[in-house]
Amino acid sequence: MIDARLEIIEERLKRIKRIVAVSSGKGGVGKSMVSATMAMALSKKYKVGLLDLDFYGPSTHIIMNAGDKPAEKNGLIPPLVENIKFMSIIYFTEDKAAPLKGKDIINAIIELLAITIWDELDFLIIDMPPGMGEEVMAILKFMKEAEFIVVTTPSILSWETVKKLLLFLKNNRCKILGIVENMVMEHSIKNEIEKFGRYLGAIKFDASIEKFIGNANKIMESDFGKDVEKIAMKI
Amino acid sequence: MHEWALAEGVIKTAVEKAKESKMKSIDEIDLKIGEMQDIELDIFKFALDELMKEYGMKAKINIRIQKTKFKCNVCNYEWHFDEFELTEDEKEFVHFLPESIFSHARCPKCGSQYFEIVEGRGVWIEAIRGKK
After folding, report:
1. A7–B113 CB contact, under 8 Å
2. Number of Cα atoms under 13 Å in the Cβ half of residue B92
3. Percent of chain A clearing pLDDT 70 (strictly above)
4. Range of the domain at B22
5. What superfamily does domain A6-232 belong to in CATH?
6. What is the number of domains present in chain B?
7. Comparing C-alpha atoms, which of A125, A189, A119, A187 is closest to residue A159?
8. What pLDDT is recorded for position B1?
9. Alpha helix locations (H) across chain A?
10. E-assigned strands of chain B?
């Protein structure tokens, strides 16, 4: 038996120039804020899509204050949120928990990739869940050209886990665009990071960012937004 | 999954597999569709016909709908899709993304959300027949 959904994924992704998966081994390092802000920064110059694959903790819709639902036309056309084509599981689960298990996660990803009509994009940014679960494997299988940005904080607890993800990605011959150091205060681990790969940049800890969540303009004007924009322009 | 996306997947897969098997024409395709996909058969068949025209195909498509079976991992109760009491919105969500069932439903017997889809999910091409 052949799964009829697989053939269509390639078709759906073929007009996307670059796929960038924003990942981390650890939760709470600011992946979603970096993903959404990076998408917003890139959208000033490019056609951008944002796919939230963090099924257990989707949050980019809150950051971007996404309201409109996908439109139905021979599949689903993602709504434009801040000029970014946006897709998330929240359009199907609302605010309920999504307790998906291994094969359900893969099936949900296949379904989302098969059904979403991104059309032409310069960048598809993917907000990945923490860790090395099914979502990372799905990227390896269905999006072989994807490039990874790995986010860490200066904390040894974050970095030790992130190193394992970097090693895994290297072992699997994934393209790693670089490593972002988020929430930097006095202490930076730049030198340590540079031993493992390209240091894309530091994002200073910005205590004000919490109150800007849901307001794209304010995020982009913040110190956090400016730091992310500098990093976005390097990729 | 949406009917048109589903039909596109079926036709593209059939064309690709026929190429691999060096078939000159596709005469018949057997499909198994999980009940959970909740497809509108009329729209689906229309989409298949339209896509076959695009690809210059004229195959007979046999569709078998497989009933969906669930099993609770906590109390081992087994049940079918029609035992769920879903709202119209929830049915629509499940139509597009079948895994959203885990957000909207629970085991009818013990109320757990820790259950499995045993069968009746997905779109499967069971056989492609044609001339070589």
Report:
1. no
2. 9
3. 100
4. 3-131
5. P-loop containing nucleotide triphosphate hydrolases (3.40.50.300)
6. 1
7. A189
8. 58
9. 6-13, 31-42, 60-63, 90-93, 102-115, 134-142, 156-171, 190-194, 216-221, 223-232
10. 25-34, 60-66, 69-72, 78-80, 115-119, 123-131
Mean pLDDT value across chain A: 95
Q: Tell me if A75 and B124 make a contact (CB, 8 A cut-off).
A: no
- Which value, to the nearest 10 degrees, does the dihedral of the CA atoms of residues B14, B18, B23, B26 take? 0
SS3 B98: helix
CB contacts of B16 in chain A (<8 Å) are 7
Q: Where are the domains of chain A?
A: 6-232
| Structural tokens at position A26 | 């650890």
Q: What are phi and psi of A125, to 5 degrees?
A: -95, 130
What is the C-alpha separation between B24 and B26, in angstroms, rounded? Answer: 7
**Residue B88 binned pLDDT confidence (cut-offs 50, 70, 90):** very high
Torsion sign (Cα): B119, B120, B122, B127: positive
Q: Please tell me the predicted confidence (pLDDT) of residue B131.
A: 87
CATH of the domain at B115: 3.30.2320.80
CA distance A97 to A103: 17
Cβ pair B103:A96 closer than 8 A: yes
Closest Cα in chain B, distance from residue A11 (Å):
9
- Most trustworthy range by pLDDT among A5-9, A110-114, B73-77: B73-77
Residue A137: band (very low, low, confident or very high) from pLDDT cuts 50, 70, 90: very high
